[in-house]
Structures are given as C-alpha cells and as structure tokens.
Design goal:
alpha/beta, eight-stranded parallel β-sheet, 8 helices, binds D-xylitol-5-phosphate, binds zinc ion
C-alpha cells in the first residue's frame, strides 16, 4: 500500500518559488505536482514550460505534470525535455488516448490519465493496463482551494477494483480539496497518491502540513 503525497505548486508563493521548493525538497513529499492550464480545456491559465524548466532545476522530487490542455500530444517532447517524470493527460482531451499513451512512453516518461468528476471510471477498462497512473479529479479542474466532491469516494472504490482486477500496475491519485481530514479515508479506500495545494501551502508550516496529510 502506498501513501504518497504530491504537493500542488499552484498554491505556492510564485513570488518566491525557490523558498517553497526548498521546503518541499526537505519534506516527506514524494513528488511535486505541476498544473498546466491553457484557458481552453479549463477556464483558467496557469504556467508553462519556462516555469517547469526552472522548477526542475530546483526540485529534487520527481515532477508529476498534470496537463489541463487540449491536444496534449503536441507537447510530449517539450514536457519530457523540461523535466517531467510523469506526463498526465485528461481523458476528456484525448480522442486517440491509446496513441497518446504510447507517445508518452516512447518519450521515456510514465503515463497518467485524469478523469473529470463526471467521467465514469469504467471508460478506462481497455486502457488501464497501459497506464502508470490514474488521477481522479475530486473538484472541477481549473482552480485550487475548491471543496472536495464527496462522490469521489464511490469512484475511488470502483477504480481500485478495476485496477486490481485488471492486474494493472497503475497508481491511483486524487486531486482537489484534499486535506488532513479526508486523507485517511482516501488512503484507506485505496488511493496511492494524494495531491494537495491549499492544504500544503496556505496556512501553517509546509513541512508539517505534508506530514499531517500523510498521517506521520
Ligand atoms: C485543480 C488542480 C489541482 C489544484 C489542487 O485544477 O488540478 O492540482 O492545485 O488544489 P487544492 O488542493 O487546493 O484543491
Ligand atoms: Zn492537478
């Protein structure tokens, strides 16, 4: 059983990223989650390759890049060249998802697929064996600091079953509204990795916040 944490940089202090990333380096965080938004797939724009490249220079944790963009296929090589260990694309943004996953693997990265809150986990039945990561959005993507959608628990149980029955090695990740209160239940129901933005960076001490979400 995994209990991984991937803090979401979106909630960090962009006026002093170096400071926050150094704290992440010295914390129990396992990965660093980078949210790329294009203003088309989601109603917000975040950051792109120059920022990822800079973060990669400073960060000693693997970069988990969550692309909330249309047509992510176009950027597979740039995502790799700027330092991503995991390239995570939205199911809803990929018409030829199998091809996209192959392209990500051929580029030498781990491949993840994200499902929006309305997308049933069962759509992954015929691709889950090829995946390294499945991310369930527990808020509608686009913003940090939103309220956790309770129906995610039900999806998590169904996804855990789907992954286990298929023999897939995919890790299950949850993103949106995660905090120290709901983390134990998410881990108990079979989540392997929790993304947390506000709960890590807004209020309190970053290193302690990560410990409490992880249950340490
Ligand atoms: C939302 C992003 C999340 C976000 C999570 O679209 O995918 O990664 O940063 O932020 P919190 O943990 O504050 O909900
Ligand atoms: Zn995210």
């Amino acid at each position: 059983m995994n209990r991984l944490i991937s803090p979401s940089l979106l909630s960090a202090d962009f006026g002093n990223l170096e400071h926050d990333i150094e704290l992440i380096n010295n914390s129990d965080a396992d990965w660093l989650h980078l949210d790329v938004m294009d203003g088309v797939f989601v109603p917000n724009i975040s950051f792109g390759f120059p920022v990822i490249k800079y973060v990669n220079k400073l960060c000693r944790k693997p970069l988990d890049v969550h692309l909330m963009i249309v047509d992510p296929d176009k950027f597979v090589n740039e995502v790799r060249d700027n330092g991503a260990a995991i390239m995570n694309v939205h199911y809803e943004a990929c018409t030829h998802l199998h091809r996209t996953i192959q392209n990500i693997h051929n580029a030498g990265m781990k491949a993840g697929v994200t499902l929006n809150p309305h997308t049933p986990v069962e759509v992954l039945r015929d691709i889950v064996g090829d995946l390294d990561l499945v991310l369930l959005m527990s808020v509608n993507p686009g913003f940090g600091g939103q309220k956790f959608i309770e129906h995610t628990y039900d999806k998590l149980v169904r996804l855990r079953k789907l992954v286990d029955e298929s023999g897939s090695k995919a890790l299950i990740q949850i993103d949106g509204g995660v905090n120290a209160e709901n983390a134990p239940e998410l881990f108990n129901l079979g989540a392997d990795c929790l993304v947390a933005g506000n709960a890590v960076f807004k209020g309190g001490e970053i290193i302690n916040n990560i410990k409490s979400i992880k249950g340490l």
